[in-house]
Amino acid sequence: MINADINLKQSYEGLQVCGLTKVLRGAAILNGLSFDQPRGSIYGIAGDNGAGKSTLLKIMASILPPDGGQVSFCGIALSETAGWRSLIGYVPQEIALDDRLRVRETIEFWLSVRGIPAPIRKQIVKTAKSDPLISDFLDKPIRECSGGMARRVSLVVGLLGDPVLLLLDEPFAGADTRSRTMMMDRLRHLRSRGRTILLASHVEATMTNLCDRVMRLEDGHFPHEE
Amino acid sequence: MRSNRYPTDPETSPGDRPHEGLPEALPDADPGQTPGEKQDDSGRLMLPVSFREWIRSFFSVFKRDFRSTRTAFLAVLLVFAALTATAVPLVKREMEKGEGNVRPPMTFSISIVDKGDSYFGTLFAKALEDVKYLDAVYADTFEQAKERLDRNEIILFFAIPPDLFEQTRTGSVRESVELYLNPQKPAEAGYIAVLIRQYYFAVDRLYSAVFGYQHQYEKLGGEEEESWRQATRQSLDAISAFFGKSRFAVDGRSPGSGALLHAGAGILMLFAFLPAMGVLAETRRRFGSDLENRITLISGRAVPALSRIVLGLWWWVVLVVPWLIVLRITGILQTIGPLTAVLAGVYLAGALLMLFVGRSKASAVTVFQTGWLIFFALLLSGGVLYPASLFPAWLSRGARLTPMYCAMEVVSQAMTDKGAVPSARLFLSFWPILPALLLAVTGMRRRRA
Predict the structure, then answer these.
(1) Please, are residues A157 and A114 in contact by the beta-carbon 8 Å criterion?
(2) What percent of chain B has pLDDT over 90?
């Protein structure tokens, strides 16, 4: 357990991960992982399948508890679950959408899960007509969407609420070149607006093109970053 | 720290922004501002915080869950509505048929073999004519009665010795009345035999008292033969009054109606608990899935859990309420309030328990096997499948401590007493809800990799 002797820099304006550890079924998945990421940047986590990328993002999304270490963003710690969750947007590895709903209904559903009243929901859904990521197929059921379309919808759902810290797990998996380009454009735009984005993928070429920094996860830590 | 700010002015749309649409549709947070710090009203969309927002969040998740089972739900609703509509007139017709000539649920025929063709035998047969649960009383010879017994026409027959009347007059009975039971119906015959033995002791005392008075009357100079006849009639009237008591036959204390009521109570308990297994299935299917994680991150753990419980409650309504209405309309229950509360409690405790089981980290197969094992163990130990009173003594004592026992007792009693249940027993039946709630809260804290 690495926690008590690690002090985060309280004044740091960005994402800080210090000595993060996670053991699953007796195996150390994350082994004292540390890195800093400034606000308004895109960092990529590369690694082979099973390297622990998804586990790292799930911990950072507060889905899984860490076994040790600390994570904070602009002074707010991961352990303050409610406060932390109000900062993050999480796009999971799976599409994780109800495939019976149309794209328009999907947006409305996730807005209502956030407790948004109906008139404002309708207004926001109306603006979705001009969103290049989804405007072409708003009335299509998710089950009829291609892999790339579904990925775009999943990203848009993750962006609802305009989170300041975005955690994306394999966001381009199954997406065609056009979808990938559109999604990357959107992420670059979000970076320009000061959003902090951490994404995991096993395709390093895509990340090199997009990210300010790519870190390779091996044996539960970043050997080339320490 | 938590905030939930959405545009108060719906007209605030970013039509002229570089990337029109989402998330630019939502006004930006100032990148220079500390995240979580309160911003102005046009700040970011966040998580549901107020009660109204939480309710809105809950209903959206519930609506989605309901939609996934809508077809099955409507199909079951239609089937049950049809069954209910069929059952009500059928039961009512049967009950109307029986009005004014209420027949007990279990009736028997018997034979009397009066070897001496005595006055006592004639009186005895006449007295038994009015007993409600006797279809017929035959006056037979021994051979005839035995043939009837072999043909399964009668449940038993008495053989009255030829000089019984004379023996009773002298007060020294040497030859006893013989009782022959139907071997093809050992349970019913045995039950009747036990009753007859119980009545015998009462009658014996009564008869002794009557003859004691008669003896005094005779000493005082009354007409001897007539006084004995009158005394015997008086005794047998008293016997028939005992046998004719309607409590045994009509109020459902006979084995036949008892079994029916227990089966009815058991079916209600089964239907009440069954939706909890749906909660288990849905909880296990979603546990650790990315969709569930996404919902949990936004609305918290309680919303999906509560949605499942409420969905199960809908199923409970479809499975249980029609039968309660049938029981009420047909008059078997005069009130359904207490029974409804108990059965809802059974569901709630079961659903909370299954929330705990469903969020186990074991494999899906193990979780489902465990869930069904718990389901049947609770039904069995609570006396739902088989009356707990018939368990061995040690097991019966243990069964009293199991979660379903109190509820089953209350439901059985309500079925017997037209729906009435003592308040204390009613509240006692809710005790499993509290430990189940604690387990559910523990289970909801589990997270899965």
Answers:
(1) no
(2) 22
Looking at this predicted complex, what is its ipTM?
0.88
How does strand A76-77 pair with strand A14-24? unpaired
Q: Where are the beta strands (DSSP E) in B317-432?
A: none
Parallel/antiparallel/unpaired status of strands A213-216 and A196-200 = unpaired
Question: How confident is the model over B286-319, as pLDDT tens digits?
Answer: 888 889 999 999 888 889 999 999 999 999 999 9
Q: Which chain B residues in 37-76 lie under 8 Å from chain A, judged by CB atoms?
A: 44-50, 52-54, 56-57, 59-61, 64, 67-68
- Nearest chain B Cα to A158, which residue? B294
User: pLDDT tens for residues B57-93?
Assistant: 899 999 988 888 888 888 988 898 888 888 888 877 7
% chain A with pLDDT above 90: 43
Which residues have a Cβ under 8 Å from the Cβ of B335 and sit 6 or more positions away? B328, B418, B419, B420
pLDDT-based confidence at residue B217 (cuts at 50, 70, 90): low
- For residue B231, give the nearest of B120, B112, B117 by alpha carbon: B120
Residue A185: list chain B partners with CB under 8 A. Answer: 19
Q: Do B26 and A161 touch (CB under 8 A)?
A: yes
Q: Do A119 and B18 touch (CB under 8 A)?
A: no
CA distance B425 to B436: 19
**Lookup result for tokens 């991150």:** B297
What is the arrangement of strands in the sheet containing A42-46, beginning at the earlier edge strand? A88-91, A165-169, A196-200, A42-46, A213-216
Three-class secondary structure assignment of B113-134: EECCCCHHHHHHHHHHCCCCCE
| A170 CB-near residues (< 8 Å, 6+ apart) | A54, A93, A200, A201, A202
Query: How crowded is residue B43: how many other Cβ atoms within 10 Å of its Cβ?
Result: 21
Strand partners, B109: B136
Q: Do A114 and B447 touch (CB under 8 A)?
A: no
Angstrom distance (rounded) from CA B354 to CA B39: 42
3-state helix, strand, coil in chain B (%, to 5): 65, 5, 30
Looking at the partner chain, which of B7, B29, B57 has a beta carbon nearest the beta carbon of A115? B57
Checking if the pLDDT of B391 tops 70, the result is yes
Nearest Cβ partner for A193 among B2, B31, B293? B31
pLDDT for B93 equals 75
Contact of A99 with chain B, judged by CB distance below 8 Å, is answered with no
Contact B60 A131 (CB under 8 A): no
A163 vs B contacts (CB less than 8 Å): 44
The span from the CA of B378 to the CA of B368, in Å, is 15
